[in-house]
């Protein structure tokens, strides 16, 4: 369904206000108090679009991603941290790898680490198994990390845990992962738009050889490509909510990641030395882009996975959204 | 069940019931146009008889219940069943809405013949000196009694030698009148003074033509829209070229990709898997994008410069899909001498044209930069 622009603007603006307020209060507690979780149950597309686009615009110093994933896994999980898959495990699909009687854990947690953690592990047949384990288990190390995007409060949890300390959980990881990918796609699109806007403003003003940089064809063509990538991602993401399956969410996230990476590359080039300064602020959008593109499967690894999935299937799925009832 | 689900089920049922008839028309995309176009017209008449291609056109022009969305679903279903969409339907979809809006009297006459499979139309826009810079065209139309006399040369007219009618853009204003001095004419290609010469394309097929107009008389009743209103007609038409045409192509590209996968199942896929993933992603993105555009067209909402986004996504899809297919079936592509290999090469060469015809990709980027990003002009 195409989001009603009025509903979206209203919701997104109120999310932006919450994110301003949250800088002291903590996003999770603010959002739990607000109507967001109810909205998430009623209208996931609106809830996710408004919060995650607001996050992209404001470069929030906390992410609602863990809240979303935890809510999708089950409402009774308040005191459990979800360990988000990063490239530490390879393709950023799982946050743990089974190795004999050990589980090798490596992933990140947004905000404070809870006493219990959930780790997603890919089994040999490709299914995901989720384990719950004590965050302080022997062999596990947790530390706050700054990394590329120091604005986010991240805790990295890593180490080897014996399987008998872990309890298999029956939560539906795939569904949560699909929701997470669509949410990240919204944030990536917002980041891409912010970078494109920054670069567009700059090349309209900046003059060399007596003319604005934005009048040069090389610059215009490259920024047009960014616009096309963003618009295409938006349409793909809308369809991913309609299809509500794993494949469409993978494509939506990968396309949004491609759009944001392209926006980052071109805006860093066209904003020249000015864009390279700390003060100009472009780097913060670039940092956030690189980081969130990497979690839950980067655009590169998702592209490979999609290719391999359809090569194995021997035919390409044709999305059926056109005949879905979406009044 | 939604309305379009019912439409889809009805079309599937019809395709199944008529499989004997349709089987004979499958795989018409390979071979010379002189064979494929008449075959396509046969299918066009079957689709007309069954009513599928008549959906959404005005009733007094041979149309029936429905909208352009019914036809979009039909194109999807044809491709799904492995039946090539008749190439002639492309220009019907592109030019038809312009006739309905700007020359209903011509549409009343022409559309019933289209639905009988007795019409192929073409578009006479480009000239040797006016490609991307279309507004510079010089084919001249001079008033003479109750009509006009047209003299000039058109080029890159797709299957012009197999069409009966041409939507022709000519200059009725003075030579500096640019886009303001153009008029759209509906021309019978068997009129005295018209000479059509085929051009062999890079794939070895007669894809397009040069059309010479030597003092060709056209009655003023054959004017589409206003005298001097040719540019408006052309711009109106372009929305359909970038909307429904892109939709028809995405349906075919999905089919081609699946077909290539069927043919190469045993091959080592590791070499091209990532490229396949990327091509498929662009293709689904195009599908998502142009469905929205077709919905807009169905509601009569003007599409405007945003249609350039569809067109750029179409170009990217065509080239990426055909590139990866040429790698998946590399032996056939490079060494094959059968009809299948020939069709594969035809398709690959045709995909190179997708970023050139109907406004080159560079022109589309220019439109995006000027009208959507508001960049300063060069």
- The first-to-last residue Cα distance of chain B is 52 Å
- Give the overall shape of chain B: globular
Level of helix content of chain A? Answer: 40-55%
Report the radius of gyration of chain B as a whole number of Å: 21 Å
As an assembly, this protein is: heterodimer
Radius of gyration over C-alpha positions of chain A, nearest whole angstrom: 20 Å
Report strand % of chain A: 15-25%
Written as H for each helix and E for each strand, in order along the chain, the element string of chain A is HHHHHEEEEEEEEEHEEHHHHH
Helix/strand-derived category of chain A reads: alpha+beta
Biggest sheet strand order of chain B reads 1-4-5-8
Into which percent range does the helicity of residues of chain B fall? 40-55%
Characterise this structure.
Chain A is an alpha+beta fold and about 325 residues long. Helices cover about 55% and strands about 15% of the residues of chain A. Chain A has helices at about 5-25, 25-35, 35-40, 45-60, 65-75, 175-205, 215-245, 245-270, 270-275, 280-295, 300-315; strands at about 80, 85, 95-100, 100-110, 115-120, 130-135, 140-145, 155-160, 165-170, 205-210, 210. In chain A, a hairpin with a 5-residue loop joins strand 5 and strand 6. In chain A, helix 1 packs across helix 2 (about 25-35), helix 6 (about 175-205) packs parallel to helix 8 (about 245-270) and helix 6 packs antiparallel against helix 10. The longest helix of chain A has about 35 residues, at about 175-205. Chain A starts with a helix and ends in a 14-residue tail after the last helix. Chain B is α+β, with helices and mostly antiparallel strands. Chain B has 13 helices and eight strands. A four-stranded mixed sheet of chain B has the order 1-4-5-8. In chain B, strands 2-3-7-6 form a four-stranded antiparallel sheet, with no helix packed on it. In chain B, a hairpin with a 2-residue loop joins strand 2 (about 140-145) and strand 3. Chain B is globular, with a radius of gyration of 21 Å. The model of chain B has no long low-confidence stretch (mean pLDDT about 95). The interface between A and B is large, with 50 and 53 residues.
């Amino acid at each position: 369904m195409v989001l009603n622009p009025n509903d979206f603007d209203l919701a997104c603006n109120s999310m932006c206000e919450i994110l301003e307020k949250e800088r002291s209060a903590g996003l999770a507690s603010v959002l739990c108090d607000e109507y967001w979780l109810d909205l998430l149950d009623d209208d996931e597309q609106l809830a996710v679009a408004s919060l995650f686009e607001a996050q992209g615009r404001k470069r929030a110093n906390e992410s609602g991603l863990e809240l979303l994933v935890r809510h999708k896994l089950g409402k009774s999980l308040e005191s459990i941290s979800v360990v988000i898959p990063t490239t530490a495990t390879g393709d950023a699909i799982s946050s743990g790898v089974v190795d004999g009687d050990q589980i090798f854990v490596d992933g990140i947690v947004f905000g404070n680490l809870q006493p219990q953690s959930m780790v997603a592990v890919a089994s040999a047949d490709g299914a995901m198994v989720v384990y719950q384990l004590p965050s302080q288990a022997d062999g596990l190390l947790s530390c706050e990390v700054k990394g590329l995007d120091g604005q986010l409060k991240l805790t990295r949890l890593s180490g080897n845990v014996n399987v008998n300390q872990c309890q298999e959980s029956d939560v539906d990881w795939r569904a949560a992962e699909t929701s997470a990918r669509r949410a990240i796609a919204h944030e990536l699109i917002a980041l891409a738009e912010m970078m494109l806007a920054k670069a567009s403003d700059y090349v309209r003003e900046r003059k060399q050889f007596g003319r604005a940089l934005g009048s040069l064809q090389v610059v215009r063509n490259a920024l047009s490509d960014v616009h096309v990538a963003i618009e295409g991602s938006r349409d793909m993401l809308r369809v991913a909510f309609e299809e509500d399956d794993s494949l469409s969410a993978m494509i939506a996230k990968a396309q949004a990641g491609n759009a944001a990476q392209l926006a980052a590359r071109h805006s860093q080039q066209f904003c020249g030395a000015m864009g390279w300064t700390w003060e100009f602020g472009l780097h913060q959008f670039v940092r956030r882009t690189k980081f969130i593109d990497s979690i839950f499967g980067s655009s590169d690894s998702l592209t490979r996975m999609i290719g391999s999935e359809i090569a194995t299937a021997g035919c390409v799925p044709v999305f059926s959204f056109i005949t879905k009832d979406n009044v | 069940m939604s309305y379009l689900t019912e439409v889809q089920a009805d079309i599937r049922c019809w395709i199944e019931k008529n499989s004997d008839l349709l089987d004979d028309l499958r795989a018409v995309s390979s071979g010379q146009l002189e064979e494929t176009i008449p075959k396509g017209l046969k299918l066009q008449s079957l689709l007309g008889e069954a009513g599928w291609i008549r959906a959404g056109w005005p009733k007094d022009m041979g149309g029936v219940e429905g909208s352009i969305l019914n036809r979009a679903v039909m194109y999807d279903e044809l491709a799904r069943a492995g039946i090539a969409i008749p190439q002639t339907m492309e220009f019907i979809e592109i030019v038809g809405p312009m006739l309905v809006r700007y020359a209903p009297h011509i549409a009343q006459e022409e559309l019933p013949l289209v639905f009988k499979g007795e019409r192929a139309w073409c578009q006479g826009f480009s000239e040797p000196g006016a490609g991307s810079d279309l507004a510079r065209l010089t084919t001249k139309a001079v008033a003479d009694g109750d009509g006009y006399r047209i003299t000039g040369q058109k080029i890159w007219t797709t299957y012009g030698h197999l069409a009966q009618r041409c939507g022709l853009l000519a200059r009725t204003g003075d030579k500096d009148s640019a886009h303001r001095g153009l008029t759209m004419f509906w021309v019978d290609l068997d009129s005295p003074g018209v000479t059509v010469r085929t051009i062999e394309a890079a794939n070895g097929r007669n894809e397009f033509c040069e059309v010479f107009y030597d003092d060709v008389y056209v009655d003023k009743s054959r004017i589409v829209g206003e005298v001097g209103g040719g540019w408006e007609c052309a711009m109106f038409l372009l929305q359909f070229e970038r909307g429904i045409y892109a939709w028809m192509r995405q349906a075919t590209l999905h089919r081609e990709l699946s077909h290539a996968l069927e043919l190469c199942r045993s091959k080592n896929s590791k070499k091209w898997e990532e490229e396949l993933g990327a091509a498929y992603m662009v293709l689904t993105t195009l599908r998502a994008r142009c469905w929205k555009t077709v919905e807009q067209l169905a509601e009569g909402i003007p599409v405007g410069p945003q249609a350039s986004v569809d067109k750029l996504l179409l170009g990217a899809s065509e080239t990426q899909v055909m590139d990866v297919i040429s790698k998946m079936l590399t032996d056939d592509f490079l060494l094959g001498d059968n009809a299948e290999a020939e069709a594969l090469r035809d398709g690959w060469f045709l995909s190179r044209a997708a970023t050139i015809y109907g406004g080159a990709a560079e022109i589309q980027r220019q439109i995006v930069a000027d009208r959507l990003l508001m960049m300063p002009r060069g």
